[in-house]
Specification:
The protein is globular and about 55 Å long. α1 packs antiparallel against α2. It has five helices and no strands. It starts with a helix and ends in a 6-residue tail after the last helix. It is an all-alpha fold and 127 residues long.
Length: 127
């Protein structure tokens, strides 16, 4: 199995975990009185961006292992810097655009971390 095959498989696994979290977050936001259309759009955009970031991290790591350590480190650092700047731009846009709920757009950025922690706690034997 190649590095990109692993990245695709893990991204699909992350998608399967993020869908219920996004639906649960939508329910909480609506129960709290948020506008459903705006909240749904914001959560979907945030979840899509979060999946994109996860995939970019995987691609960067898969690419870095193909090079000598020094060059691999540079590849990972360059990818980290690019994702950091891109995330800053997305957060600023979420705050500035009137049709996006900033909290609902930023919340899905934490979903991969939650899923990774939960999967390590509740990992299956042999999985």
């Amino acid at each position: 199995m190649t590095g990109m095959d692993i990245v695709r498989e893990e991204t699909r696994r992350m998608l399967r975990g993020m869908a219920p979290l996004t639906l649960a977050a939508f329910g909480v936001f609506v129960l709290a009185g948020s506008e459903p259309g705006r909240t749904a759009l914001s959560l979907l955009l945030g979840a899509c961006y979060s999946l994109l970031l996860f995939r970019m991290i995987g691609r960067s790591a898969a690419k870095a292992v193909l090079f000598p350590p020094e060059q691999g480190t540079r590849i990972v650092r360059r990818g980290y810097f690019f994702r950091y700047v891109l995330t800053g731009a997305v957060v600023v846009l979420a705050i500035k655009l009137p049709f996006i709920d900033p909290l609902a757009a930023v919340l899905p950025l934490f979903f991969p971390k939650i899923l990774l922690v939960c999967s390590s706690i509740f990992s299956r034997k042999g999985g």
